[in-house]
Amino acid sequence: MKIFIKNMVCYRCKLMVKSELEKLGLHPIIIDMGEITLKEKSIYMVKDELIKNLESMGLELMDDKRSQTIEKIKILILDLINHSEVVLKINLSNYLSEQLNQNYHYLSNLFTEANGTTIEHYFITQKIERAKELLIFDEHSLSEIAYQLNYSSVAHLSKQFKKITGLTATHFKKLKIKKRKLPENL
Description:
Arc Repressor Mutant, subunit A, four-stranded antiparallel sheet, 9 helices, globular
């Protein structure tokens, strides 16, 4: 059986969910971001407790296909941004359509309706959050960050950074308090 979990976007989340599932006597076979394959054919007997335990961790069990599709879009985008070895050779709309085997127009409307923002804006916002993270770690130049995040130039990154944050990347880097937004809060 497969179950889908909203906001499960990091390795720590996977470990916490695995632990919770095992406490409930469930046997996860595969744990991916947002998707878990269980040995069991049903979670009916422990579903209410699982929902309660997930909510206490800021996660949510998703039963409907629309929510699952939206979460898959978010996970694909986060994976694309956070794993620089994946270089997007096609545009985002084609990438998502191919990965989810769905029409992009449908995906775009579904995402916008549920989140109040477009997929493209979500993608840009996530790229800027990643840029902020990389600036905070101070291990890469702005030029390297632009390349890692697949920007055409430092100027393009800088323009989007300023538009999203209201600050230049250089000014952000100098700030003493550097706040990042978590993916589930965007």
